[in-house]
Amino acid sequence: MQTEIPDILLAAWEAYGDWRKLLSIDEISATVSTNRVYRLVLSDKKELIAKVSSYGAFVHFRQDHERINQWAALLRHSRYRKFLAGVVERDGKIFVFKQGHRWVVFYHKVDFYDFLPRQLSMPEVASFGREMALFHRASRWAGQQLTPTSKTVGADIADLYDALDDADWRRMRGISPEEERLLANHCDLFLESCDSFGFHQWPKLPILLDWNTGNFSVGYEDEGFKLFSRWDYDWFRIEPRMFDFYFASRVVRGSGDQTVFSYTTGPLLEDRFFAFLEAYHAVLPLTESEILFMAEAYRFFVLNYVIHSGEHFFRPAIWQRLSREAISEYLPSIASLDLRPLVDRLLA
Q1: pLDDT tens, position by position, 135-158
Q2: Phi, psi for 328 (deg, rounded to 5)
């Protein structure tokens, strides 16, 4: 559906200074997200993708996109040299436009091939495990070359601590004193677990966190596939690989992709996720500590992306439901999340 061109996109395109005219746009935003995403049609018939965002700090947004282009460049000699959609540059630097508390970035439009079905077959589950391991292996080398960013899991948890001390922030979200204590306790548990697992000694690599069947495409080969293209970077960060695994479990779960979704721990316990891990482990072996840390990666996801920042990622009705479920269901369920059987089966 053709859309009227928002003023911020007109201003961003003028600031970019391209000779081509911006003829029209189509909005292609996800129905659950607060970001606005558009396909731009230019006067030479070429297309770009534009994202308008207001989440977080502008400096983090700019740093993320600088690192994404560095990452893509470092993958140029690997099989994933064309996998990541490039960020548009000007004068050798990424172009990001800021207007008030909103910012715009342009992406080169990537081709897509096949999309995974709502429910994966078992050969597809194994393919996804192998592909994720190969992609992590290529990205782990790239991660050693990337410039660090100021966004870390410790900093994000510290921000949530600060927010919990703000009475206005708690009141606007309906967080009771008891719930405040529960959330603070989960922050403590996460940081303590990072120390006990040796988290800070693990290699860091660029990760995308949000893997779902609508933001990447694949190329099928016989019963399996290879990753082909990826264009969504909302939850990009540079951290150990285990933060990618919860969403991988959601891709391979037996119930498949869901229109109305929740973030329960169930997918981590399915045999289908074990099959994914088995295929991954055959390529890039996992340690006992890494497997057990998946519970903490899940805890961090709920604390940061649902409780602390969910209002910036999800439409209001979805965010309100998810934040209530996070407090009443997701976080309490971690106490009974036993990943030891995965360790025993995988490392036997």
Answers
A1: 999 999 888 889 888 889 999 999
A2: -85, -25
Find, among 41, 14, 45, the residue nearest to 27 by Cα: 41
Q: Which candidate, 343, 227, 236, places its Cα nearest to that of 294?
A: 343
- Which structural domain, as residue segments, surrounds residue 205? 122-346
Helices (H), 5-121: 7-16, 58-74
pTM assigned to the model? 0.93
Tally the residues of the chain: 348
Q: Are 133 and 86 part of one and the same domain?
A: no
CA-CA distance, 277 to 133, in Å (whole number)? 9
In a domain, residue 115? The reply is no
**Residue 204 included in any domain:** yes
Which residues of the chain fall below pLDDT 50?
1
For residue 266, give the CATH number of its domain.
3.90.1200.10
Model confidence pLDDT, tens digit, residues 177-233: 999 999 999 999 999 999 999 999 999 999 999 998 888 999 998 878 999 999 888
Residue type, 63: Q
Same domain, 134 and 91: no
Cα angle: 262, vertex 264, 265; to 5 degrees: 155
**Is 225 within 8 Å of 216 (Cβ atoms)?**
no
Does residue 211 sit in the same domain as residue 339? yes
Do both 100 and 132 map to the same domain? no
Residue 116 lies in a domain: no
Identify residue 297 by its one-letter amino acid code. A
